């Protein structure tokens, strides 16, 4: 029987370190990294100015990404996805992706409190000035309203980390 790749994806509030951890894991696992921010900025340059714009373009991107990731997994290559899995609906998308091809997965839950996340966001604003417009406390508070911590009942393989491990 042919070995399928494993899908790794992340849950954590804005500023929890999902992108940083995804890059580290990609190296550790010799995996393919898929970054939603990269895809969106490449395909829709200068078109995402509001949270609603992000939601619209992210939804347009997902069918293509799903098929692409399934193809990569089906040839035995692991994939690390730096796409949000911060709501039950988002996590179901990942679970459906692997279930349809019988691949394995791991959800890495970066469980940091709001204060730590806001400190990371402030640091990121200094290190990446191009993100200043979006990396604000107001945006953090807005998107955090939608955050849903993963539950065992969702049927996911969850690894919970409580810091930048």
Automatic annotation (TrEMBL):
InterPro entries: P-loop_NTPase. It comes from the Bacteria. This is AAA domain-containing protein. It comes from Gracilibacillus kekensis. The lineage of its organism: Bacteria, Bacillati, Bacillota, Bacilli, Bacillales.
């Amino acid at each position: 029987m042919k070995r399928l790749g494993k899908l790794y994806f992340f849950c954590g509030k804005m500023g929890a370190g999902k992108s940083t951890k995804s890059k580290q894991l990609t190296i550790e696992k010799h995996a393919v990294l898929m970054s939603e921010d990269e895809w969106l900025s490449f395909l829709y340059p200068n078109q995402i100015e509001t949270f609603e714009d992000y939601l619209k373009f992210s939804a347009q991107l997902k069918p293509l990404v799903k098929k692409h990731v399934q193809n990569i997994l089906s040839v035995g290559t692991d994939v690390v996805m730096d796409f949000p899995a911060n709501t039950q609906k988002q996590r179901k998308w990942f679970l459906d992706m692997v279930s349809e091809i019988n691949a394995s997965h791991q959800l890495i839950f970066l469980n940091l409190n709001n204060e730590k996340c806001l400190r990371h966001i402030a640091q990121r604003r200094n290190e990446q000035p191009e993100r200043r417009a979006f990396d604000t406390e107001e945006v953090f508070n807005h998107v955090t309203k939608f955050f849903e911590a993963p539950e065992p009942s969702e049927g996911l393989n969850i690894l919970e980390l409580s810091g930048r491990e």
